[in-house]
Design brief:
InterPro entries: Aldolase_TIM, DapA-like, Dehydro-deoxyglucarate_dehyd
Pathway: Carbohydrate acid metabolism; D-glucarate degradation; 2,5-dioxopentanoate from D-glucarate: step 2/2
Strand content: 5-15%
Pfam family, one: DHDPS
Number of strands: 8
EC number: 4.2.1.41
CATH superfamily of one domain: Aldolase class I
CATH topology of one domain: TIM Barrel
Number of helices: 12
Distance between the termini: 44 Å
Helix content: 40-55%
Catalytic activity: 5-dehydro-4-deoxy-D-glucarate + H(+) = 2,5-dioxopentanoate + CO2 + H2O
């Protein structure tokens, strides 16, 4: 049926190879980056209602962006249809207030499929996860991420970690791509990262190219990364304790070394020591934290395992201590809605 005169036709969908409309994602990425967990029901199925609440509360608490279906969101454990449903829900809950970036990974064919699903669901960008298992040379990695960036109109952030490690020259080649707009570092080698930053700057590509601290519990290395000029970081703690995460973010931005040290010594370092007691705790301990704040996001899917009650109890005591410290700091606020601001 033809459109009525009063109803203009919808704008055409962007085609691969053209920039996404609206403000550039690189300009919109600011503040604390929220990586929500994916909620599962008791039978292990996706619980979209709880997931929506988790994302909604995170945005309301002050997230700078939502990175959905990434590492903390158990991207590895999601079927493509579940991925699409989560990205669609996150986009709806963010409602344009903050950008939504979706994970995309595995081999070339599946990575492109996830990227196209993210685009169809309305995501603002992609976080390109490492390829599955294989160890490639630099030419192969550059070709893989270039083909992924070519698959959609979405701006793409490349995630360095595990089997996807880059030389400065390779990152320069990636930064020349019009839709590869950032580099998330999960390696944690300041020497390598500084040489990458210098190379990209020397090539004149640094104006709109963003860098992210992507290490687990990035707050521990926040001071070091700021010394390299890298202010953006992902915060898993924001998922279950936005009050603590935001207090630390404010202190770091204000160069309040006393407050930074207080939160590091009183909460973050003990949290990392607990996290290091179990494999997969970078995800499962975070989900336990969300449950402690009153939102039942369920457990993790295999092959990950949930932490035992003793570790959950230890996390609860640590959480109380962290909330007390955050509330006593300048700009500290009362505790957010039950379930955590990002609950």
């Amino acid at each position: 049926m033809p459109s009525s005169p009063s109803s203009p036709p919808p704008p055409p969908s962007p085609t691969p190879g053209t920039p996404a409309p609206g403000p550039a994602l690189a300009e919109r990425l600011d503040g604390l980056l929220f990586f929500p967990v994916t909620a599962f029901a008791p039978d292990g199925s996706l619980d979209l209602d709880v997931f929506r609440a988790h994302v909604r509360r995170g945005v309301a608490a002050g997230a700078g962006a939502v990175f959905v279906c990434c590492g903390t969101g158990e991207f590895h454990a999601l079927a493509p249809e579940e991925f699409s449903a989560c990205v669609t829900a996150a986009v709806a809950e963010a409602d344009g207030r903050v950008p939504v970036v979706a994970g995309a990974g595995y081999g070339p064919a599946l990575a492109r499929e996830f990227a196209r699903r993210a685009e169809a669901a309305g995501a603002d960008g992609l976080l390109a996860m490492p390829p599955y298992l294989v160890v490639a040379d630099q030419d192969g990695l550059v070709r893989h991420y270039t083909e992924l960036a070519d698959a959609t109109a979405l701006p793409t952030v490349v995630y360095q970690r595990d089997n996807a490690l880059f030389t400065p020259d390779a990152v320069v080649r990636l930064a020349r791509h019009p839709r590869i707009i950032g580099f998330k570092d999960g390696l944690g080698d300041p020497d390598v990262l500084q040489r990458i930053i210098t190379a990209v700057r020397g090539a004149g590509l640094d104006e709109d190219f963003r860098y992210f601290n992507g290490l687990p519990t990035a707050e521990l290395t926040g001071l070091a990364y700021r010394g390299l000029g890298v202010a953006l970081y992902s915060s898993a703690v924001f998922c279950f304790a936005p009050e603590i995460a935001l207090a630390f973010h404010r202190a770091l931005a204000a160069e309040d070394e006393a407050a930074v040290r207080t939160l590091l010594d009183g909460f973050y370092v003990p949290f990392v020591e607990l996290r290091n007691q179990g494999r997969g705790y970078a995800v499962s301990l975070v989900k336990a934290g969300v449950r402690l704040r009153g939102l039942d996001v369920g457990g993790v899917r295999p092959p990950l395992s949930d932490p035992p009650p003793a570790h959950v109890k230890e996390l609860g005591a640590l959480l109380e201590r962290g909330l007390e410290l955050a509330g006593s700091m300048p700009g500290g606020t009362a505790r957010t809605q039950s379930g955590g601001g990002a609950g």
